[in-house]
Amino acid sequence: MKPTTLPVKARAHTNIALVKYWGKKDEDLIIPQNSSLSLTLDQFYTDTAVQFRDELAADQITFNGRTLTGDAQRKISRFLNVVRDLAGITEFASVETTNHVPTAAGLASSASGFAALAGAASRAAGLQLAPRDLSRLARRGSGSATRSIFGGFAAWQMGHNDEDSYGYPIAENVNWDIAVVAVVLTTAAKKISSRQGMRAAVKTSPYYPAWVQTATQDFETVRKAINDKDFETLGHVSEENAMRMHALNLSADPSFTYFNADTLRAMAIITDLRAAGYPCYFTIDAGPNIKVLCQKLAVEKVVSSLQSAFGEDAVLVVHPGPGLTFITD
């Protein structure tokens, strides 16, 4: 392959996992213990530009205007090595990334980040990968990035190796009544990374085998609910799946949690609103922040209730978003 002469810029959006993966069978290839399913969002995204250049003596990586060094730089370079191997090139790359997602705060910034990097880097290296192969490549950086290649509802087939573990779309054009209210309770980086948390749950939770079995059942139930446009089943199972995932962390040794006091407070608000007849359900990834699945009837009430508790700036209404796109300036 021959690298492009100009930088290639790609945009990918983050996603919220409705049926979560929590634990890997292969940490190097990032092969999960169970299949997962998510919804890509429209307002949280990452823009990344990549160019492979002869004159560089090392990869130059800029993140939100800051040059990366140390472990952060090495992680990106390892991913770029995968791209270089695929393309049969040796040039180092310049990478410029702008993140429009609070980093490491449970809003899956790694999903949009590595999906955008996979798109921009592969094309800059001269590759023209199909969406499935892009999802396989993105998986090598972050498991959840596998799904951010696609818009709307997307799934990640667990698989057993590099070839058969990939993402695919379920319903990219979401044309029914569903919105997401994102509640950013903190933008601080979490103390326990997703990688560390998964490893602890797999190794020490006595309930881990039951999680895999239940999550597999949840996947099929939620996929059918999407096909049927059954919001109540979608919301209920997504909420239960999230709580079971976080229960693994509480049952690990040593026990840990991503929740904080505001997480519990927000959960109680949503539970009370649902009891009052508003169609809304929460889900929580590996962090304290909450995302609330709503129908139009509930959005205004959910927003006002959460703003009263946490402030106007903490609450944002988002909708199903697009998959990976390439940007031409």
Automatic annotation (TrEMBL):
Transmembrane segments: none annotated. Residues 181-312 form the Mvd1 C-terminal domain. Keywords: ATP-binding, Lipid biosynthesis, Lipid metabolism, Lyase, Nucleotide-binding. The keyword Lyase applies. GO terms for cellular component: cytosol. Residues 12-166 form the Diphosphomevalonate decarboxylase-like N-terminal domain. It comes from the Bacteria. This is diphosphomevalonate decarboxylase. It comes from Secundilactobacillus paracollinoides.
